Amino acid sequence: MNNITRYTRLQQKLHWAVVALVALQYLLQRPVKSAMSHEHDGLDLGAIEFLVITIHTWGGAAVGAIMVYRLYLRVKRPVPVGAGTLRGAWQRLAQGVHWSFYALLLFMPITGMLHYYVGLHSVAHWHEWGEWLLLALILLHVVAALAHHVYKKDATLRQMWGSRPPH
Ligand code: HEM
Ligand code: HEM
Fold first, then answer.
1. Ligand 2 proximity of 67 Cβ (cutoff 6 Å)
2. Which residue has the CA at smallest separation from atom 15 of ligand 2?
3. Domain segments of the chain: what residues?
4. Residue 76 backbone dihedrals phi, psi, to 5 degrees
5. Distance separating alpha carbons of residues 85 and 156, to the nearest angstrom
6. CATH number given to 9-161
7. What are the tens digits of pLDDT across the range 83-112?
8. Phi-psi region for residue 80, left (φ > 0), alpha (ψ -120 to 50) or beta?
9. Alpha-carbon span 142 to 138, nearest angstrom
10. 104: burial class by Cβ within 10 Å (0-12, 13-18, 19+)?
């Protein structure tokens, strides 16, 4: 029987670091697209454009690396979804969303790198497609987390935000 009830402080920090990095990718969506297309057309890049591209490529690669490490921590020490309150289809849905995040946040850096560094332009539309799928999953995830906290009033959000994780 699994009696672990919350994420470690390290898992919490990594979760919120990824949230911040992914938010940055979306906030910089337009400038990234325009800087990337200038670079693609062989135009000289300004300092801001260079910075925006660097944040996108290195930030995205950092997300991928963090997700690999999180996956290792997650497999080594599973925490029950929804603070152990979910059963049946709801439990499977929550697990499905979490595993999809791992898959998508590896898929995005891989397709991005194949496009940017290897010049494989055919994967560009996969990167764009992944962007929308990721956004939809984030919305679902945030609504679910807030519903647990506000309506069900259980420990789900505190598992990821709590002040007294085991270590
Ligand atoms: C970029 C946005 C986000 C991503 C990619 C993301 C990703 C994830 C992943 C992969 C997990 C599963 C952790 C594991 O089992 O190892 C998780 C759990 C969790 N996240 Fe997020 N998250 C995001 C935003 C948020 C936000 C904004 C909130 C709060 C409103 C939140 C609250 C939670 C909570 C409470 C859990 C624990 C859920 C449970 O144990 O059932 N997340 N998140
Ligand atoms: C978590 C990881 C990542 C996320 C969430 C992400 C998300 C995005 C977003 C929102 C755009 C905006 C452009 C649009 O709407 O068409 C974009 C474009 C782009 N990204 Fe990423 N990205 C990630 C990682 C990477 C990495 C690691 C690279 C390369 C090293 C990369 C290369 C590109 C390229 C080349 C474009 C321009 C595509 C175009 O002009 O259509 N991405 N990405």
1. no
2. 29
3. 9-161
4. -70, -30
5. 9
6. 1.20.950.20
7. 899 999 999 999 999 999 999 999 999 999
8. beta
9. 6
10. middle
Q: Is 126 exposed, middle or buried (0-12, 13-18, 19+ CB in 10 A)?
A: middle
Nearest Cα residue to atom 11 of ligand 2: 29
Show the 3-state SS of 36-88: HHHHHCCCCCCHHHHHHHHHHHHHHHHHHHHHHHHHHHHHHCCCCHHHHCCCH
How many residues are there in the chain?
A: 167
Tell whether pTM > 0.85.
Answer: yes
> Dihedral (C-alpha) 101, 152, 86, 156: value to the nearest 10 degrees?
50
User: What is the position in ligand 2's atom list of the atom closest to the CA of 29?
Assistant: 12
